[in-house]
């Protein structure tokens, strides 16, 4: 592997001069021999990223403007809501001071206003307080006031017609805002086209296309020169063709730039026409707004006159109070109120008696429950003591039984050993007797015969002894196994006995608990019977109280029917007053809405005017830029050599046809993908410039 050679500062300076639009001090070095470095690739990538970021920045700025407008409108709504609440509270306080308390307490009609339920608790509380105050105020006013309906109805019809006109104006404003947004989008497209025209990378690509045509012409000239032998003629022809093609390319670029300028001028004319139309529409909207403001001021004057009439309507109220019917109604109302108060007192007495009975019952129940709980706790403590003593006695009994069983097993072993010892003694006695008998017989028989007989007998004795010994050993082994089995079974028996005793203990404890629970159930049944008897007595008392309540309700219904018949006449008059006041309220609300809508229209007009001025400035700025671009197009002839050098830098140094779209990680040199793939397939895996080795994993894709 060959190490990467760092370029000298002189070469770096030349490379910078070729990339930037400055001429190098030594123009003798051809630009095609200097490859694109990684810094150059990064520069082109940054330029492309910058263009995308600029586009995103413009979009974000538009979105931020729309967000700010939305926040501004929301803050205005919140301010308007708070001011309206404040004004209503002031209005209610002023009228409450001027109205007597007697008028407010006579008739409380809670169905004057429509109730509103809101999910937010704080807002619902505010609305409920305002609802109560307004209902009280309107009840007090409606008892005394009477207004004519003609003026209010005419004003209401006029307000409805003006509302329709305002909705039409709002629709026009929305159309204007949509046109404004379309104009903004067109201006953004123009800005993008302008940035794309002025981008250095696109200029280099266009120059690259011209240079590729030059390379094709060079190949054609070389093929013709192979047939002829004159090298000088080849050079002259190639130079001439290059000069003509470069001129043609420059003319094409100038034509394209002129076409773009013409298109931009046409777009500018269209934008100016649209802006002029928008100005005309805005002026017409201004005139309409002025007319609406004058109309609203007239309506306010009329409403003030009506309010003045309502305030000066006290003389007729005094005449109504002097009339005989009104006095008789007041007297009947007083009598009914007195009877209702008496009935309420009787109700309260009955309720107090019921509460006293219930309190006594609750005290008795608490006492019985406390006694019952104390007895249960004492019984439980006594039972726990007895159970502990029983468990202790049973555990001692079980331990003693296990000891007795162990002693019995040891006693059986000792008896078996004594039996074995007795058998051994009997066997030894028999052997001794046999020996004595043999000695007597041997004396009779001769010595030889004695010896033979002795030998035979000895053998028989030995065999018999062996058999007896084996039988004894087998019996001993069997006895030992039986003893082991007996020990195991005895241990298991003791464990089973312990489990049996534990189960019996649990059975005894459960039986004792069942007895206690049965006693508790008996006591509870007695308490339930007591409670049932108390419930029957209480039901009887409740029946009596319900009968009393029914009688009182009948009396109340009779008085209410009389009261309703008396108040029906008053309600008819109140309805007329309510309708008139509701109309007045609607007028006030419509006026406030009209004012708010006018403010919104003024704000929208100001925002549209600001947007129009900003767009006008942008159009002028773009015009100036396009003019400057037209002036600079004449100066492009001087920088053709630099552009050709830059284009040759973007072309592959091996084939001189394709653009450099692949770079090597090891050395940083750039080539086209086809040349690199050919080298990899042909096993020539070395850089053609610096001979540094590379593989498939050392290849990076680049985008110019």
Please provide a written account of the structure.
The chain is built from 12 helices and 3 strands. The chain has helices spanning about 10-20, 40-100, 100-105, 120-140, 150-200, 200-225, 230-310, 315-320, 325-445, 445-630, 640-650, 675-680; strands at about 660-665, 670, 700. A 3-stranded antiparallel β-sheet has the order 2-1-3. Helices cover about 85% and strands about 0% of the residues. A hairpin with a 5-residue loop joins strand 1 and strand 2. The chain is mainly alpha-helical and about 700 residues long.
How many H/I helical runs? Answer: 12
Radius of gyration computed on alpha carbons: 61 Å
Return the average pLDDT rounded to an integer.
69
Can you write the helix and strand succession as a string? HHHHHHHHHHHEEHE
The total count of strands amounts to 3
Strand order of the largest sheet: 2-1-3
Shape: flat
- Helical coverage, percent range: over 70%
Oligomer: single chain
Low-confidence stretches: 1-10, 19-33, 100-107, 144-150, 218-243, 313-322
Proportion of residues in β-strands: under 5%
For the record, give the distance between the C-alpha atoms at the N and C termini, rounded to a whole number.
Answer: 29 Å
The description of the largest β-sheet is:
3 strands, antiparallel
Structural class: mainly alpha
């Amino acid at each position: 592997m060959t190490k990467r050679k760092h370029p000298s500062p002189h070469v770096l300076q030349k490379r910078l001069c070729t990339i930037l639009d400055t001429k190098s001090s030594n123009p003798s070095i051809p630009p095609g021999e200097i490859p694109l470095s990684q810094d150059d690739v990064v520069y082109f990538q940054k330029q492309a990223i910058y263009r995308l970021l600029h586009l995103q920045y413009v979009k974000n700025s538009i979105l931020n403007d729309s967000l700010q407008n939305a926040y501004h409108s929301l803050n205005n709504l919140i301010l308007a809501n708070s001011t309206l609440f404040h004004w209503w509270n002031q209005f209610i306080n002023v009228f409450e001071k001027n109205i007597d308390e007697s008028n407010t307490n006579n008739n409380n009609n809670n169905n004057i206003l429509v109730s509103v339920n809101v999910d937010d608790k704080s807002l619902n509380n505010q609305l409920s307080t305002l609802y109560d105050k307004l209902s009280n105020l309107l009840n007090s006013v409606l008892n005394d006031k009477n207004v004519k309906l003609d003026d209010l109805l005419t004003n209401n019809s006029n307000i409805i017609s003006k509302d329709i006109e305002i909705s039409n104006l709002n629709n026009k404003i929305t159309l204007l805002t949509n046109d404004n947004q379309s104009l903004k989008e067109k201006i953004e497209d123009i800005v993008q086209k302008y940035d794309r025209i002025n981008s250095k990378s696109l200029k280099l690509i266009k120059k690259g296309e011209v240079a590729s045509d030059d390379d094709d012409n060079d190949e054609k000239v070389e093929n013709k020169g192979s047939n002829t032998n004159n090298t000088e003629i080849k050079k002259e022809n190639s130079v001439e063709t290059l000069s003509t093609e470069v001129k043609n390319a420059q003319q094409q670029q100038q034509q394209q730039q002129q076409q773009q300028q013409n298109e931009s001028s046409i777009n500018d004319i269209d934008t100016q026409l649209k802006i002029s139309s928008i100005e005309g529409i805005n002026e017409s909207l201004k005139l309409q707004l002025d007319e609406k403001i004058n109309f609203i001021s007239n309506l306010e004057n009329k409403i003030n006159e009506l309010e003045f009439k309502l305030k000066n309507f006290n003389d007729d109220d005094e005449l109504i109070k002097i009339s005989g019917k009104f006095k008789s109604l007041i007297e009947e109302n007083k009598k009914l109120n007195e009877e209702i108060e008496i009935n309420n007192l009787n109700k309260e007495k009955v309720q107090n008696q019921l509460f006293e009975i219930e309190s006594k019952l609750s005290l008795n129940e608490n006492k019985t429950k406390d006694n019952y709980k104390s007895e249960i706790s004492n019984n439980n403590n006594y039972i726990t003591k007895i159970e502990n003593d029983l468990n202790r006695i049973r555990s001692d009994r079980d331990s003693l039984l296990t000891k007795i069983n162990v002693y019995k097993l040891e006693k059986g072993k000792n008896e078996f050993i004594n039996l074995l010892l007795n058998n051994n003694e009997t066997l030894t006695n028999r052997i001794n007797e046999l020996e004595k008998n043999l000695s007597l017989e041997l004396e009779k028989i001769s010595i030889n015969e004695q010896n033979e007989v002795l030998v035979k007998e000895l053998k028989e004795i030995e065999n018999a002894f062996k058999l007896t010994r084996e039988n004894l050993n087998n019996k001993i082994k069997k006895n030992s196994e039986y003893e082991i089995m007996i020990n195991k079974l005895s241990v298991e028996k003791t464990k089973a006995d312990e489990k049996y005793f534990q189960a019996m203990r649990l059975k005894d404890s459960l039986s004792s608990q069942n007895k206690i629970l049965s006693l508790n159930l008996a006591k509870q049944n007695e308490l339930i019977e007591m409670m049932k008897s108390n419930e029957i007595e209480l039901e009887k008392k409740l029946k009596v109280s319900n009968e009393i309540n029914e009688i009182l309700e009948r009396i109340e219904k009779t008085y209410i029917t009389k009261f309703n018949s008396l108040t029906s006449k008053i309600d008819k008059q109140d309805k007329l007053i309510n309708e008139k006041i509701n109309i007045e309220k609607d007028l006030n609300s419509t006026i406030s809405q009209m004012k708010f809508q006018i403010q919104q229209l003024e704000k929208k007009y100001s925002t549209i005017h600001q947007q129009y001025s900003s767009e006008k400035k942008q159009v002028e700025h773009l015009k100036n830029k396009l003019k400057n671009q037209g002036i600079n197009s004449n100066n492009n002839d001087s920088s053709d050599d630099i552009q050709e050098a830059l284009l040759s830098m973007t072309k592959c140094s091996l084939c001189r046809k394709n653009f450099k779209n692949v770079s090597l990680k090891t050395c940083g040199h750039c080539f086209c993908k086809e040349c690199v793939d050919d080298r990899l397939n042909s096993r020539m895996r070395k850089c053609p410039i610096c001979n540094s080795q590379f593989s498939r994993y050392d290849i990076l894709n680049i985008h110019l």
